[in-house]
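Priority: medium. Attachment 1 of 2:
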């Protein structure tokens, strides 16, 4: 079995895929702290990690790719996937570099402001797909180039597409998953990228009648900034969602957990990772809570993080981390 098939099979098994923040100390990249995060994710039950290269300058990109190359290749006999999240405009230029660095799939963040045509977008995906397997990662309210089910279907029919992410923007999600059902492809999996309400995504059946057949599609895993922290709890919650999805009845208690996860996400998971950095600093993964430009989080961010942690201790993994941090640092 070739490596791309193994990657596809692994993705479609349904994974916890945290989008990792950049580990910095006093505003400078800290390779040892980034390595700690990779060890944490692997031990906590993640099936891989996503290195966030959106807007990363070349020097920072090289540092991050070198760092993720040191992440575990396997965990308990299963591949630990290395995925890169990149801007659509840079995806073709970076594909060769990412492949050489050991990246196994490229998540292309669609530019909602792009003015090009659908044909240009399809051509880009075909070109990048010659080098790496593809994950479609919509942003914001979507892109006008994919305004119909037919547009989405054409994108999803590209052979190298392995997964499509469902964003918080529901019109994009509904259109994309309907298009996926119409392709009849069973080798493309759905991942939630809904930072606000991932739990509901993971237990909701998207059911369609096509001809005489009923087709169900579900999100099998998540690719989330929120899961870059408290990852052990996120992996456990994903497994629980898998069980509930198989049974078909969603308990009220899980719906309550969904509300709590949404509250946690609103406190932590902004695009700048400020709340997540605050938590990772408390857990001693990071030596300080500054961002890549050396800026401290605002008092409001720190307060929101503290309140969320206090209100939802069952969604945190402080004890899990404290028991293992010293060992990870020695590896």
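Attachment 2 of 2:
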């Amino acid at each position: 079995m070739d490596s791309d098939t193994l990657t596809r099979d692994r993705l479609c098994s349904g994974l916890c895929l945290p989008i990792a923040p950049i580990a910095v100390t006093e505003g400078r990249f800290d390779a040892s702290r980034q390595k700690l995060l990779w060890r944490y994710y692997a031990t906590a039950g993640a099936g891989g990690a996503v290195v966030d290269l959106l807007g990363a300058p070349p020097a920072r990109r090289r540092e991050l790719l070198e760092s993720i190359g040191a992440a575990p290749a396997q965990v308990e006999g299963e591949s630990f996937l290395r995925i890169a999240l990149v801007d659509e405009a840079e995806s073709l230029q970076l594909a060769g570099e990412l492949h050489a660095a050991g990246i196994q799939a490229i998540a292309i963040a669609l530019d909602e402001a792009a003015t090009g045509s659908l044909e240009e977008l399809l051509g880009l995906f075909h070109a990048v797909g010659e080098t790496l397997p593809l994950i479609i990662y919509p942003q914001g309210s979507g892109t006008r180039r994919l305004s119909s089910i037919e547009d989405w279907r054409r994108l999803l029919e590209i052979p190298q597409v392995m997964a499509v992410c469902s964003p918080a923007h529901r019109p994009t999600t509904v259109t994309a998953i309907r298009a996926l059902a119409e392709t009849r492809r069973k080798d493309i999996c759905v991942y939630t990228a809904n930072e606000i309400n991932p739990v509901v995504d993971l237990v909701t059946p998207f059911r369609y009648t096509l001809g005489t057949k009923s087709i169900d599609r579900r999100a099998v895993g998540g690719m989330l900034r929120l899961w870059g922290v408290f990852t052990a709890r996120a992996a456990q919650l994903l497994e629980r969602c898998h069980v509930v999805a198989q049974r078909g009845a969603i308990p009220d208690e899980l719906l309550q957990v969904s509300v709590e996860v949404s509250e946690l996400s609103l406190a932590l998971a902004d695009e700048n990772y400020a709340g997540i950095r605050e938590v990772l600093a408390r857990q001693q993964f990071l030596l300080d809570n500054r961002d890549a430009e050396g800026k401290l989080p605002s008092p409001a961010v720190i307060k929101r993080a503290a309140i969320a942690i206090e209100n939802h201790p069952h969604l945190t993994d402080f004890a899990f981390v404290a028991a293992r941090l010293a060992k990870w640092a020695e590896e």
